[in-house]
Automatic annotation (TrEMBL), chains A, B:
Recorded name of the encoding gene: cinA
Coiled-coil intervals, chain numbering: none
Name the UniProt record assigns to this protein: Putative competence-damage inducible protein
Family per similarity comment: Belongs to the CinA family.
Chain ranges of the MoaB/Mog domain: 4-173
Pfam families, per the entry: CinA, CinA_KH, MoCF_biosynth
PANTHER family: NICOTINAMIDE-NUCLEOTIDE AMIDOHYDROLASE PNCC (PTHR13939), NMN AMIDOHYDROLASE-LIKE PROTEIN YFAY (PTHR13939:SF0)
């Protein structure tokens, strides 16, 4: 089945809102093995919608539409699709009952416009809306082998309707099982990862392997199509093993989500606690750890010591070290990590100190120089990182990369514990 | 000029990332008076890209493309556009110098792949990439009246390239002097702001007023078109004054960028220091303050006290308060703010404690309940916030909104000091 996603709405076209619907639907379709071929956005304009629909159905057999199902005069999606499929509109009792139920639960008055929402093309399967008044619908044209799925625009209404009603409907039609795994790699560039895997990526059609770069990390997605989940997993296993062999410790997990999620999971597994002492990252390391629900089991304390006196007074970094070597030094990073570990009575202390820029750099200690430290019973070290790429406005990037190195060091310490 | 936005990338098509580029470009084009007619997304596939480009140019004279400019074999945008325009690819020294500069500043090795990035279609105007290796380009075909703008996919690279290089280029083509100001509003909903300004927005064509909602804030963009910058500013002044009158203290600044930038600027002006004590926000408040370059002049210390014992031991919150009222309470927030102010010897202490979810909520203290406190000589208070909207996965939203309330309270305290 080849699908297109067609989002209707002038507010999307003009950029007043970001189109999260297309990404949501595409991901859900990929998960059930439906190939998305194309995405498009058109404004609230019946003629252009009609033209786009004709193009879409010339290439695809499934078009998923969002938006334009509201009660007002510029909501035209249903009528346009009905016309293209050669269907009349008719009053649908099931859809009307659903709308009535929405109003029963609210203090708002139902209007004549809302009654209009209960008119659907002849033969349509209505989709109930748990979070709004506009019903969705599925319309099939078996002779021409084309299916239109119409969904409301607001994500809160669209998402549950799609996953609870449309996905089961499509699954029954397709009978295929597509399974994906994500391999998370830190510390290698995308071009390097790709050059190592180039031949495999070119040759292999099932499973497939695709790299995605995001700030300092590479995510490799392996996808297999098979008769069952078990068979798909069997096909992917040697590929995942091969990637792990190739990239060794740089692979920090499979299907783990993020460095912080991997760290929290490892700490939970081992019953350990970590603590953070941050200078240049300013709280970003603790922010990322506490992003993970359940972090409170493994994380009690983070200190953002942005000034030397706080490094001394709260973390116990020695005055002499700060005087002789400066705040941005290997020794300060080591003492910060040890200091916060002691203060928090944690198993692992992790620290960052460096120059995020744009000012404050010198020849000896340029912008982007960051020391990342870790202190624990079996593993204590300081890493010197040079994180500037010479970009403009790279302060946030340097801070983010430094926080990733800190999370990675803490993860290594947790694994060695 | 009629424009289409065409985003290239399998990761967009499959929903692995949300397409923020289309919204960004659409909004920037609208601001300089260019109408966006259509948006589309295609995968990394030369043939489908070619087909879409032909359709796009049959309806529009400007196509803005993002993605597919990377160094790898599946990055095909440049070649496909060149073919459509009937141009050869040639080595471009200016583009190559830009790429070289990127590598000079980093410890990464340049590869043969990167050299490929310096090949542009004959006659293209190269666009420098301040934040990555892939140069962008503008290609005009004067005979056929069509222009293609090619931009890299990562927003960090695309956005400054578009606003600093493409916008001036298009402005010159369209001959307008457009000046904009941004009015920053916190604490009012977008629909409320819009309903207050509805008549003005409907009637006024120059200057125009457009609201943009983003996580708890509303940004009002005022734009005037005039013969000179001074004249445009004169036209906008009464509008800005009117908005300030209407929304009073909820307007926290004009052209100030963000709550954290407004706070750091106010603290610098007054020679004050702030300190943070965070529980549910986990370091996000200090992370946002230290995002602002120069924050080290006004911020020494942030404590993330995620466990009760750290609230007691480091911040001096009383054991009795924690026992009797719990960590999520007005009293705990007040003591955290006072405690960190004392510990850091700061002028202003600010605190957060609450339930970010998804677990940990009760009937009495539901997910989304957050107390935000501030302590300073002239202004000390605690705000009770209910930040849940009942959405799925709203942990990060609750944390972000709580951090915004904290920054806002600190800003109020700094203004009263």
């Amino acid at each position: 089945m080849r699908a297109e996603i067609l989002c209707v709405g002038t507010e999307l076209l003009l950029g007043d809102i970001v189109n999260t619907n297309a990404a949501y639907i595409a991901k859900e379709l990929a998960a059930i093995g439906v190939n998305v071929y194309h995405q498009a956005v058109v404004g609230d304009n019946a003629q252009r919608l009609r033209e786009q629909l004709e193009r879409s159905f010339s290439q695809c057999d499934l078009v998923v539409l969002t938006g334009g199902l509201g009660p007002t005069y510029d909501d035209l999606t249903k009528e346009t699709v009905a016309e293209l499929f050669g269907r009349e509109m008719e009053f649908n009792q099931e859809a009307y009952d659903g709308i009535l139920r929405r109003f029963l639960h609210s203090d708002r008055q139902m209007t004549e416009n809302n009654r209009k929402q209960a008119y659907l093309p002849v033969g349509a399967v209505p989709l109930q809306n748990q979070n709004g008044t506009a019903p969705g619908l599925i319309l099939e044209d078996e002779r021409e082998h084309r299916t239109a799925v119409l969904l409301p625009g607001p994500p809160r209404e669209m998402e549950p309707m799609f996953s609870n009603q449309v996905v089961p409907y499509l699954k029954e039609k397709t009978h295929s099982t597509l399974v994906s795994h994500s391999i998370h790699i830190f510390g290698l560039g995308e071009s390097y990862v790709e050059s190592c895997l180039h031949d495999f990526m070119e040759e292999s059609r099932n499973p497939t392997l695709a790299p995605y770069a995001k700030e300092g990390e590479v995510l490799l997605r392996v996808t297999a199509s098979a008769g069952s989940r078990e068979e798909a997993d069997r096909m992917m296993e040697p590929v995942i093993e091969r990637v792990k062999e190739l990239f060794g410790d740089n692979v920090y997990g499979v299907d783990i989500g993020s460095l912080q999620a991997a760290l929290v999971a490892e700490l939970q597994k081992k019953g350990l606690k970590a603590a953070t002492a941050e200078s240049c990252t300013g709280g970003l390391v603790s922010k990322r750890i506490t992003e993970v629900a359940g972090a409170s089991q493994v994380f009690d304390c983070g200190i953002c010591s942005y000034a030397n006196q706080i490094k001394e007074r709260v973390l116990g970094v020695s005055h002499e070290t700060l005087e002789a070597l400066g705040a941005v030094s290997r020794e300060t990073a080591a003492q910060m990590a040890a200091g916060v570990r002691k203060l928090a009575q944690a198993d692992i202390g992790v620290s960052t100190t460096g120059i995020a820029g744009p000012d404050g750099g010198t020849d000896e200690k340029p912008v982007g120089l960051v020391y990342v430290g870790v202190d624990s019973e079996n593993y204590s070290t300081v890493l010197e990182c040079r994180l500037s790429r010479g970009y403009r406005d790279e302060r946030e990037l340097i801070r983010y990369l430094a926080s990733s190195h800190a999370l990675r060091l803490a993860l290594t310490a947790a694994r060695k514990a």
